[in-house]
Design brief:
The chain has 3 helices and 8 strands, in the order βαβαββββββα. By secondary structure, the chain is an alpha+beta fold. The chain has one domain: Roll (ph1033 like fold), CATH 3.10.590.10. The radius of gyration is 15 Å and the shape is globular.
């Protein structure tokens, strides 16, 4: 349990692998072009996995892989001044050692995507809550080592 009696939630966040690598290196997550509201849904202790449709932001390459996994740390989302007037919101995350894995072999095994012809549709919002079972399946595929 995290928060005031609230069960720990699991989330899939969406960003290019390039942006995910920056977040892993800095110990943070950022979603929806730096908006605060989606990050407020993620609470300390919640688990997060990143899905990266592409390697580079705005790129036409298709990566379609889970690229990072971890748990949200205590604290609230915070504004971060990147310079040049860019001030996105971030949330601190303890990233776990894990492998990147393609999503395609998992599509029929995830509650979120099983049986969906347009399986990418749920990812369009940038942050989607998923079942504990889906999170655990992805974590196993990524050979994630929880660091808590």
């Amino acid at each position: 349990m995290s928060g005031a009696g609230r069960a720990t939630a699991a989330w899939i966040a969406v960003a290019s692998a390039e942006h995910v690598r920056r977040g892993r290196a800095g110990g943070f997550m950022q979603v929806c072009h730096g908006k605060a509201a989606p990050l407020r849904r993620v609470r300390p202790g919640d688990r997060v996995v990143y899905y990266s449709p592409t390697d580079r932001f705005g790129g036409s390459d298709r990566l379609q892989a889970f690229t990072a996994i971890g748990s949200a740390l205590p604290g609230e989302p915070y504004a971060f001044d990147m310079g040049g007037g860019v001030i996105p919101f971030r949330r601190d995350v303890a990233w776990w050692p894990a492998d990147e894995v393609p999503i395609r072999p998992l599509l029929d095994r995830l509650d979120l995507t099983a049986g969906l012809r347009n399986w990418g549709h749920p990812f369009r919002f940038g942050l989607v809550q998923v079942s504990a079972g889906d999170f655990e399946r992805i974590a196993r595929e990524m050979k994630a080592a929880a660091m808590e």
